[in-house]
Specification:
Layout: H1 11-22, E1 29-34, H2 41-50, H3 52-57, E2 60-65, H4 72-84, H5 92-103, E3 108-115, H6 118-124, E4 136-141, H7 144-150, E5 157-158, H8 164-176, H9 183-195, H10 200-211, H11 217-225, H12 227-234, H13 236-247, H14 254-258, E6 269-270, H15 271-281, H16 292-305, E7 310-314, E8 320-324, H17 327-340, E9 350-351, H18 365-369, E10 374-381, E11 396-401, E12 417-420, E13 438-441, E14 462-465, E15 472-476, E16 495-499, E17 519-523, E18 542-546
Parallel strand pairs: 1-4, 1-5, 2-3, 3-4, 9-10, 10-11, 11-12, 12-13, 13-14, 15-16, 16-17, 17-18
Antiparallel strand pairs: 6-8, 7-8
C-alpha cells in the first residue's frame, strides 16, 4: 500500500499535530491521540513520526508499541535502540537509567503507541526528563482516562470516523489505485464504503478483499449485501483488534457493552432509557451511597470514554442525550454474546423490536416468559397485549398502543421502570407498583389516586411526563427525588408551580429550555438551593420564591 493512500481523511489531523509538536512551548508536553480501535490512531502517529519536518525538528526520536500485556524491559530496549541505534543488554534498572541519560538535554520526540493502562505510565514517565527545550511525548490510546491521567491539562486529539466521501475515496484508492472506478460499480461501491461506518480498518479490509475479486456488479453486490459479515469472514485480525477493547473492560462493564447487541444496526437509544434497562436487568450494583441510576450513568460515561459508545445527540445544556454503537463493535457484541450465551440466558431476553416476537407465544412459552426482566417494545400496537400481565418478573416495560392500557398493570409488582405513551383505564393502579423507580407517561392525571389526590409510589425517583397542550403544571407534595423534563415533555408550558416537593433534589435544567415558559413559582420548604441552580434560568423567565418552615 502506497503512503498517499493512507493519508485520506487525516491531512488536517496531521497538520494540527505537526503544529502542536513544533510550536514555541518549551515545556515538555504530552500529546494524546485518542479514538476507537481501527480508527487510524497508529497510522496518524506513524505519519507524524516519519514526517520530514518532524525528523529535522527533533534531536532524536523513538517509537514503541505498548499493548495490553506489555513487557517493560522490552519497551525500554525498543526505545533505546531507536535513540542509540545499538543493542543494549543491561538489567532493568540500568536500562531505565540509560534511557534517562540518553534523553537528558536533548529535544526528543517519543511515541508510545497503544497504551491501555495508567499503571504503565506510572512505571515509565520519570525516565522522560523535562529539558525545557520543546520535547514532546505522543501517546495513542482508546481510553480517555489514560490520556487524562498522563496529562490532565493537555487537550486530546480525537481521531474522528471518516465521512462518506472520504470513505469512498479511500476505498477507491485501495481497490483501483490511480485508475477510475468503473461507472457500473460506483453505486454499489459507495454503499459498501458507507456500510463500513467510516472506520478505516474496516475499509482497508474490504478494500483488500475487493481488490482481489472480479470487478463485476454481481460480485460486488454479494459483498454489499452484508459488508460487516464479509469483513469478519475475510480478516480475523480485524475482529481481534476490535475485541481488545472488550477484553480490556472491567467485568461490571462487559454486560452493559454486550447489551447493545440486542438492538438493530445503527440504532440510537436515549441514555436515560439505557440506564433504566441496565438497572432492570440487574447489571448495576451500588454501595448504598448513590442510586443505581447514578451508578449506571457513570458506567455509560465510562463506555463513551473508552470509545465503545458514540454520543449521537446532545441536549441544549451540552450533556449527552442519545448514544449508538459502530456496526463493527455491534458485531463483536453479537459474537461475544453467542460465546457466553449472554442474550440467550432465561432471565436476559431483551426484545427490542416487537417483530422479533410478534407478541405470539406458543403453548408453554408463557411460563418461560415469567422469567423475563425486560420487555422494550418499540413498535406501536393497536391494542394492548394483555399477555404482558403474565410476565410477573418484569422490571422494565416500554410499550405504546392506540388503545388504553386495561386494568391489570398492578400485577407486575416487580416493575421498576414503566414507559408508555398510552392512557390507563385505572391510573390509580400505578400507586400499587411499590418497586417503581422510573415513570415516563403522557398525562399528569396518572399520578392521582382514587380520591383524585396527587400521589406517587414511594420508591419513585424519576418522572418524565408528556403533556402536549398543558400550559400550567402544578406539582404538590410529591415524593420524587429526580424529575426529567424539557421542551419535548411540555412544549407549551407557561407556568410551573412546585409546592412542598420535599425530596426533589433539583428542578430539571431542561425546564429552562422551554421557550414558552414565563413563570416558575416555588415553595422551597426543603431545598433553598433551587434558585441558584446553574443552567436553569433565562433573562425572560420570572421566578417567584416562597421559603417557609425550612429547618437549618
Amino acid at each position: 500500500m502506497e503512503d498517499n493512500k493512507m493519508l485520506v481523511g487525516i491531512e488536517e489531523d496531521l497538520m494540527q499535530l505537526k503544529d502542536r509538536l513544533t510550536r514555541m512551548e518549551k515545556k515538555r508536553e504530552i500529546v494524546p491521540i485518542v479514538g476507537m480501535g481501527g480508527v487510524g490512531k497508529t497510522t496518524l502517529a506513524r505519519k507524524l513520526y516519519e514526517d520530514k519536518l518532524i525528523v529535522e525538528y527533533f534531536h532524536c526520536r523513538a517509537w514503541t508499541t505498548i499493548s495490553q500485556d506489555y513487557n517493560l524491559p522490552q519497551i525500554l530496549l525498543s526505545l533505546l535502540s531507536c535513540i542509540t541505534e545499538k543493542e543494549c543488554g543491561q538489567s532493568n534498572d540500568e536500562l531505565k537509567d540509560m534511557l534517562y541519560k540518553s534523553l537528558y538535554g536533548r529535544k526528543y520526540l517519543i511515541v508510545l503507541d497503544d497504551i491501555w493502562s495508567t499503571k504503565f505510565w506510572d512505571e515509565i514517565r520519570m525516565y522522560f526528563p523535562d529539558n525545557n527545550n520543546g520535547s514532546r511525548i505522543v501517546i495513542t490510546t482508546r481510553e480517555y482516562d489514560v490520556a487524562n491521567y498522563a496529562d490532565s491539562l493537555s487537550s486530546h486529539h480525537h481521531v474522528q470516523l471518516l465521512g462518506k466521501s472520504e470513505s469512498w475515496n479511500l476505498l477507491c484508492q485501495l481497490v483501483f489505485g490511480e485508475e477510475e472506478c468503473p461507472p457500473e460499480l460506483q453505486d454499489i461501491g459507495r454503499k459498501i464504503a458507507s456500510d463500513c461506518g467510516g472506520l478505516p480498518l474496516a475499509i482497508s479490509v474490504i478494500g483488500g478483499l475487493l481488490s482481489n475479486m472480479e470487478r463485476s456488479k454481481d460480485v460486488w453486490r454479494k459483498i454489499g449485501d452484508n459488508v460487516i459479515a464479509a469483513i469478519a469472514e475475510s480478516n480475523e485480525q480485524c475482529y481481534s483488534i476490535l475485541s481488545l477493547s472488550y477484553n480490556h473492560l472491567p467485568n461490571h462493564l462487559k454486560p452493559c457493552f454486550l447489551y447493545m447487541g440486542a438492538y438493530p444496526e445503527d440504532y440510537e437509544i436515549k441514555g436515560s432509557r439505557l440506564v433504566c434497562l441496565w438497572v432492570a436487568e440487574g447489571f448495576v450494583k451500588s454501595n448504598g451511597e448513590r442510586s443505581l441510576e447514578e451508578e449506571a450513568e457513570d458506567w455509560l460515561e465510562s463506555l463513551v470514554d473508552r470509545n465503545l459508545f458514540m454520543v449521537r445527540k446532545y441536549k441544549r445544556n451540552g450533556k449527552p442525550k442519545s448514544y449508538s454503537m459502530h456496526d463493527m463493535l455491534r458485531d463483536i457484541c453479537i459474537q461475544k454474546s453467542a460465546e457466553d450465551m449472554f442474550l440467550n440466558a432465561p432471565n436476559k431476553f431483551t426484545f427490542s423490536n416487537s417483530r422479533l416476537i410478534g407478541l405470539y407465544f406458543p403453548s408453554g412459552a408463557i411460563s418461560a416468559a415469567r422469567l423475563l426482566r425486560v420487555l422494550d417494545l418499540m413498535d406501536n400496537f393497536r391494542s394492548f397485549p394483555t399477555v404482558i400481565f403474565e410476565f410477573v418478573n418484569l422490571h422494565f416495560l416500554g410499550v405504546s398502543c392506540d388503545s388504553s392500557i386495561p386494568r391489570g398493570i398492578s400485577r407486575l409488582w416487580n416493575l421498576q421502570t414503566l414507559i408508555s405513551y398510552s392512557s390507563f383505564d385505572e391510573p390509580a393502579e400505578l400507586l400499587k407498583l411499590s418497586e417503581l423507580r422510573n415513570l415516563k407517561v403522557r398525562a399528569i392525571e396518572l399520578l392521582k389516586d382514587e380520591e383524585m389526590n396527587y400521589n406517587v409510589p414511594k420508591k419513585l425517583q424519576r418522572i418524565s411526563l408528556f403533556i402536549d397542550k398543558k400550559e400550567f403544571l402544578y406539582l404538590e407534595d410529591l415524593r420524587i427525588v429526580r424529575w426529567i423534563a424539557d421542551e419535548t415533555n411540555f412544549p407549551r408550558l407557561r407556568h410551573l408551580h412546585l409546592h412542598e416537593c420535599k425530596h426533589l433534589e433539583e428542578i430539571p435544567s431542561g425546564i429552562g429550555e422551554i421557550p414558552t415558559l414565563q413563570l416558575i413559582e416555588l415553595n422551597i420548604a426543603a431545598n433553598p438551593q433551587w434558585p441558584q441552580q446553574k443552567g436553569l434560568w433565562r433573562s425572560n423567565l420570572t421566578m417567584e420564591t416562597t421559603i417557609s418552615n425550612f429547618a437549618l
